[in-house]
Amino acid sequence: MIKIRKRFADTGFGVIAVFVFVLSAFPVYWMVSTSFLPNNRIRGENLAFFPTPDVFTLDNYRAAIFSPRAPFAPAVANSIGVTFLTLVIVLVVGFVAALALTRFQFKGRRTFIVLILVVQMIPGEAMIISMFRIIDGWQLLNTIIGLTLVYAAGVLPFTIWTLRGFVNGVPKELEEAAMIDGCSRAGAFWRVTFPLLAPGLVATGVFAFIQAWNEFVTALVIMQRPEAMTLPLWLRTFVQATQATNWGAVMAASVLIAIPAVIFFLIVQGRMTGGLVSGAVKG
Question: Mean pLDDT, to the nearest integer, of 25-32?
């Protein structure tokens, strides 16, 4: 009887998991499928769930990439630049700060930790005006550096807090044992401690990547010139340029924006899962 109940429960959970997966994946499938269809099939009465060879087209991607009203290449370069710099700054500064908070005792340490928590509680929208005034005062409006500084400031508190849990979970005795075996302090850190912190760096790096790659509101305020647009702003401009009638091109543009994020997740997904679970336990 117990085995039968367990089998029914497993089957029920499996059905729920499949339903959630279909519910989550279908919009993505519809976006990709629509991007390969001509507009007359997209807006026609007969829906095409698969881009069969007789209707398959790449014209939507050509319209998105070579649109004269919304240049695609500068937006890609801006997004890559902002995301890369944000990742580097957040991981380097967050890692060093987490080490300092965990391995060293100094005056004001506990206050600093509490401030990190308080800063995370403030909604980002509440600080948009102050951030705009600061970036404007530094003459960094419409620059990659200006937007990068804003993104880094927003992501750093979460990064420091999460990495602190990872660093705290690595015993100092491991480094001391490596030093007894002949390693220098720096060698013991890079050969023993740093590899154990890799899942935490990946998890926080993924969070920083998502924030910098997909963010819209702050970019709309900081990057006001057309040549300074990031990809989310470019997509809005592209939709306005096509007057929201060329749905195939809009879907193709959405696919183009999603491709780098998907590639990044495929590269780091192995370590990301372990990092998120470990951070949840140790944080």
Answer: 91
- Residues with Cβ within 8 Å of 140's Cβ and at least 6 positions away in sequence, in order, are 146, 149
Q: Is the pLDDT of residue 279 over 60?
A: no
Question: DSSP readout, 227-255?
Answer: GG--HHHHHHHHHHHTTTT-HHHHHHHHH
Q: Please answer whether residues 212 and 78 qualify as being in contact, where contact means their C-beta atoms are separated by less than 8 angstroms.
A: no
Alpha-carbon distance of 209 to 82, in angstroms, equals 10
pTM score: 0.82
Q: Going from the N-terminus, what domains does the chain have, and what CATH number goes with each?
A: 1-64 (no CATH), 68-237 (1.10.3720.10)
Token pair 């600080």 is at which residue? 127
Residue type, 234: W
Buried/exposed 121-132: b ≥16 CB within 10 Å, e otherwise: eeeeeebbeebb
Residue 72 CA neighbour count, 13 Å, CB half: 16
Is residue 158 within 8 A of residue 151, CB to CB? The reply is no
In this prediction, residue 271 carries a pLDDT of 64
